[in-house]
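sorry for the late reply, my laptop died twice this morning and i had to redo everyting from scratch. anyway the thing you sent over, i finally got around to it. pasting the sequence first so we're on the same page, its 279 residues, then the predicted structure underneath. double check i copied it right bc i was rushing
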Amino acid sequence: MKFLISALILVFVFNISFPQDGDSSRVNPYRLGFVLGMGVGVLTVAHLQQYNSWWKGELTSFHFRDDFNHVLNADKFGHAYFSFLLSDLLSRSLRWAGVGENSALIWGGIGSLLFQTYVEVEDGFRPTLGFSISDWVSNVVGAFLPYARSKFEFLKVVNFKMSMFPSEKFKSGAHRFIVDDYESLYFWLSFDISRILNLEFSKFWVIDFFDIAVGYSVKQIDWRGNGKREIFLSIDYDLTKIPLKVWLLRQIFHLLNYYHLPSPSLRISPNFRFYVIKF
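ok and here's the structure:
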């Protein structure tokens, strides 16, 4: 998964380097060319990194692999999350280039899905991997979630986030990169309580700033479908609710809002445990 992290870092830097608030009434061909050129560069870097990490070596005939539950679906959350994140960043880049909002969201989703589909196809030619239908479906869901959120009111109250905290396996050296260790990853659905309850806190953004999140993680997985699922309830923070006048800070806080920050949490499964601060 770390190849995608590199791609996201490049797009992240791009998003905070150029204003998104300019005139978008028509496409700027120079900006659009820059965005497309950057996309090609990101794909090239991602391919080289993925090749060195996973694809180097023997090839086989294209094949599928059913891995729906081998890590208790944590990888499906991961595919959906990173596809969602890449889609949103790509659509914001296209908006900067002057593409209309609706078209930018559609093409952002298409670009994200093409990127992830390319990876799945390459996996399909590797003997220890394979094209995973369930991974691809998760990619579709994540890639077009930003577009769906723009169209359906009930989705606007939900945000998709992730957090990380080193697991015992990662600390023992089982994984080189933390993003490859599903036991270190936590995926969250954050609910905008003030919007759900139709409350107005425009003068009290500090109250509006707090949300409620439901989290999911796994422990003691053996990559054969065994292990423990963990479910959490947690306080969450909507950084986009903070009124900021500085453009750069608004961009940084928008991007930081993809991450679930440490907060008081209650684990409700497989047993109850309260955390004063859960990372």
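The chain has two domains: 1-153, 157-279.
thats about all i looked at so far, will dig more tmrw
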